[in-house]
């Protein structure tokens, strides 16, 4: 786990205007910057970025967050990846609790990563330049119906014939980084001695593979004539893992938001051709089966995923693997579907033969995950025999066990029970499903905590807006919060301590990020603060001081009223009475002193 102190320091160092400005065109508007919201369609800007709060907020859709939150929502990065990305930009090294790598070795690893990234960028520029000089490659792409605009959007290139063309790009052709990046191949003899080095990609149309930051991390090369392999991909490198990356995701992010879904295909050309034909929300796996990491990345981008597979046996097999990868991440607010085209078609050929409207209809009529799962379980088994029904249950068991307890799982259980002449409760018991849904008749109790209102809400807003104000709240101030109720007091004290841990330099952005990681409880308040003009900290400080003083006085007054019924001896009563009145006098003197100093 990354220490919270590091997160706070990082958010103090990065400039959210710079971070958001990489992806959204921003213009100065008063104290803030404005632009079109990247999270929903709009024609007039309602998206603001505050350099003082280090926070973004959209008045249209309500999206808000810190620089970390923006990278997570916009780029689809995980929390750790977003932190590492920002840290790299400001020269910070992310600490990890179990990290035992010596600093020198870590610095060497970072230097290697930069060198690999630079090499891939140079190679991509070279291949892109070569495409303009290759009539045969241009003719091939035009023959596939692609325009120069689409080729430029995906930065397509061409690797010409010849064994060492990259020697013109890299004067140190024998540098280890070229082999580590997968750009060249070193041939060795039987005894492991180096014989020669040559370019990996030759006479192929080149598809650069970019990560969520837009950096080239690998290549896919397609042969234009007959030959094997049809596609040649970069090997696994420190930059590139096939099971984690999706081709076209960087280019498709905004289109996915606009369309409301992502279309997952099986090949590079499908992605590019679909973009050409009006479906820029397409991505593709990279010559490997769909993985759970792929599914997580997709569901960070959208709530609706449509997998498109060829109708042949290989397509059905790939669809089954995608289904299995999706099951652990199925939830009731996400929709996953499977589109099966006729056996003789892939998306590229289908859309060219039947047109975009016909393909759009295929997408809309794609098979829901629940239906596909039951169909896979049913297979060719005889549902009229006990043995056939038992085999269906046997095949369905591992798939249902992979799912979390959701309403959708219950619906699938009911469908399976109906198919196999069983009851849902019998299926759940037989499959030993975690937290059975059908057997539970009572909904889990909801939290009874009331939403903060009035004075409690104002104190929360002041602390979240200016976390450093919490440093003036001592133990007696926190005890005074008990007047709001025990649960409210507990939440307020927790908030105060989180804010105090940030120290003198605690910021709204740092505390908001921390609260967001703990759950949605403060989301509405954070959104209100982000949307409102920033209050003056001194005004807030004076108000909070006066408010807490009054809470202390109210608490002392209540204690004084109850003192005479506490059953104390005369001596004990006198001592406690003097203690309470002394505290009251001190608080009153503080108030008078502040008034005289204004």
From TrEMBL:
Keyword terms of this UniProt record: DNA replication, DNA-binding, DNA-directed RNA polymerase, Magnesium, Metal-binding, Nucleotidyltransferase, Primosome, Transcription, Transferase, Zinc, Zinc-finger
Subunit architecture: Monomer. Interacts with DnaB.
One Gene Ontology cellular component annotation held by this UniProt entry: DNA-directed RNA polymerase complex
Organism, as annotated: Pseudoduganella flava
Pfam families per record: DnaB_bind, DnaG_DnaB_bind, DNAG_N, Toprim_2, Zn_ribbon_DnaG
SUPFAM superfamilies: DNA primase core (SSF56731), Zinc beta-ribbon (SSF57783)
GO molecular function, one term: DNA-directed RNA polymerase activity
This protein's name: DNA primase
Residue ranges occupied by any Toprim domain in the UniProt entry: 260-342
Cofactor(s), names only, from the UniProt record: Zn(2+)
Sequence similarity: Belongs to the DnaG primase family.
CDD domains: TOPRIM_DnaG_primases (cd03364)
Originating gene: dnaG
Database matches in HAMAP family: DNA_primase_DnaG
Role summary: RNA polymerase that catalyzes the synthesis of short RNA molecules used as primers for DNA polymerase during DNA replication.
EC class of the enzyme, as a word: transferase
Zinc finger (CHC2-type): 37-61
Co-factor binding comment: Binds 1 zinc ion per monomer.
Domain of life where this protein originates: Bacteria
């Amino acid at each position: 786990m990354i220490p919270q102190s590091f997160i706070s320091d990082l958010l103090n160092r990065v400039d959210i205007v710079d971070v958001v400005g990489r992806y959204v065109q921003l213009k100065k508007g008063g104290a803030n910057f404005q632009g079109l919201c990247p999270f929903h369609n709009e024609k007039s800007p309602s998206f603001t970025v505050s350099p003082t709060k280090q926070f973004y907020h959209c008045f249209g859709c309500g999206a808000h967050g810190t620089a970390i939150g923006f990278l997570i929502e916009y780029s689809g990065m995980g929390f750790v990846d977003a932190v590492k990305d920002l840290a790299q930009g400001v020269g910070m090294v992310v600490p990890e609790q179990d990290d035992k790598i010596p600093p020198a070795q870590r610095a060497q690893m970072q230097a290697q990563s930069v060198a690999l990234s630079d090499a891939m960028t140079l190679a991509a520029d070279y291949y892109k330049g070569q495409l303009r000089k290759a009539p045969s490659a241009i003719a091939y792409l035009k023959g596939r119906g692609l325009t120069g605009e689409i080729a430029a959007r995906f930065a397509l290139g061409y690797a010409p014939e010849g064994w060492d063309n990259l020697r013109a790009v890299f004067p140190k052709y024998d540098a280890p980084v070229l082999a580590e990046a997968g750009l060249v191949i070193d041939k060795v003899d039987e005894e492991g001695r180096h014989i020669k080095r040559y370019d990996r990609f030759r006479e192929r149309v080149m598809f650069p593979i970019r990560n969520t930051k837009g950096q080239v991390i690998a290549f896919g090369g397609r042969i234009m004539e007959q030959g094997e392999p049809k596609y040649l991909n970069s090997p696994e490198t420190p930059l590139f893992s096939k099971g984690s990356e999706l081709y076209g995701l960087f280019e498709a992010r905004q289109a996915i938001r606009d369309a409301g879904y992502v279309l997952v295909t099986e090949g590079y050309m499908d992605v590019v051709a679909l973009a050409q034909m009006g479906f820029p929300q397409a991505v593709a796996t990279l010559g490997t089966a769909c993985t759970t990491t792929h599914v997580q990345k997709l569901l960070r981008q959208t709530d609706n995923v449509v997998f498109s597979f060829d109708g042949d046996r290989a397509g059905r097999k790939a669809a089954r693997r995608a289904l299995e990868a999706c099951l652990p991440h199925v939830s009731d607010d996400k929709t996953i579907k499977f589109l099966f085209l006729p056996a003789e078609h892939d998306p590229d050929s289908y859309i060219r033969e039947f047109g975009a409207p016909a393909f759009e209809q295929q997408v809309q009529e794609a098979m829901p995950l629940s239906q596909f799962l039951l169909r896979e379980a049913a297979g060719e088994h005889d549902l009229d025999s006990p043995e056939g029904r038992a085999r269906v249950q046997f095949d369905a068991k591992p798939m249902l066990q992979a799912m979390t307890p959701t309403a959708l799982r219950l619906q699938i259980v009911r469908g399976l029970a109906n198919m196999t002449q069983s009851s849902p409760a019998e299926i759940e018991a037989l499959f030993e499903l975690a937290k059975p849904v059908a057997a539970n008749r009572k909904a889990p109790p909801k939290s009874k905590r009331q939403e903060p209102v009035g004075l409690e809400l104002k104190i929360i807003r002041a602390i979240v807006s200016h976390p450093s104000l919490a440093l003036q709240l001592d133990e007696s101030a926190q005890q005074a919060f008990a007047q709001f109720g025990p649960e409210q007091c507990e939440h307020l004290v927790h908030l105060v301590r989180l804010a105090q841990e940030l120290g003198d330099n605690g910021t709204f952005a740092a505390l908001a990020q921390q609260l967001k990681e703990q759950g949605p409880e403060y989301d509405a308040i954070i959104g209100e603060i982000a949307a409102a003009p920033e209050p003056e900290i001194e005004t807030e400080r004076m108000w909070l001081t006066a408010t807490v003083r009054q809470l202390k006085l109210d608490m002392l007054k209540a204690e004084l009223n109850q003192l005479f019924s506490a059953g104390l001896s005369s001596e004990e009563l006198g001592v406690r009475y003097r203690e309470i009145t002394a505290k009251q006098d001190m608080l009153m003197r503080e108030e008078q002193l502040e008034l005289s100093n204004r």
